[in-house]
Amino acid sequence: MSRTLARRTGTEHGRAVAPRHRSVAFVELITTAGLALSTAVAVTAVSIGIARADTIGTLANGDGAPFAIALFIGLLLSAMGGFTAMMAGTTSRD
């Protein structure tokens, strides 16, 4: 007892249905809004995490070595990003 299901292949009631096209500007607007919302959520989450961590109080009472290592790694990553940006701006085309 098998049934065949009708598949829609771009026709509806015997007529061809054209796909709806959205403008590029509309798609870019939706993408930008999604990116802005995602960034806001990430900033909020990081801010709450920093507030709950009480990093400054911990540094005042304890050893500063872990903070120094984290600061060094952060500065190293920032320097690598800056160097990459400088090199990307000086590419030449042959």
What does this structure look like?
- Among the domains are: 22-53; 63-87.
- Helices cover 66% and strands 4% of the residues.
- The chain contains three helices and two strands; from the N terminus they run ββααα.
- A two-stranded antiparallel sheet has the order 1-2.
- Strand 1 (11-12) and strand 2 form a beta hairpin.
- The mean pLDDT is 79.
Write the layout of secondary structure elements.
Layout: E1 11-12, E2 15-16, H1 24-53, H2 55-61, H3 65-89
Antiparallel strand pairs: 1-2
Which keywords apply here?
94 residues, mainly alpha, 4% strand, elongated
How would you sum up this structure in a few lines?
With 94 residues, the protein is mainly α. The chain has 3 helices and 2 strands.
Shape: elongated
* Overall residue-averaged pLDDT value: 79
Category by helix and strand content: mainly alpha
Q: Assign a percent range to the helix content.
A: 55-70%
Q: What's the helix-strand series? A: EEHHH
Strand order of the largest sheet: 1-2
Separation, N- and C-terminal Cα atoms: 68 Å
Strand fraction band?
A: under 5%
Give start-end ranges of low-pLDDT stretches: none
Counting DSSP H or I runs of 4 or more residues, the number of helices is: 3
Q: Could you tell me the number of beta strands? A: 2
Let me know the largest β-sheet: 2 strands, antiparallel
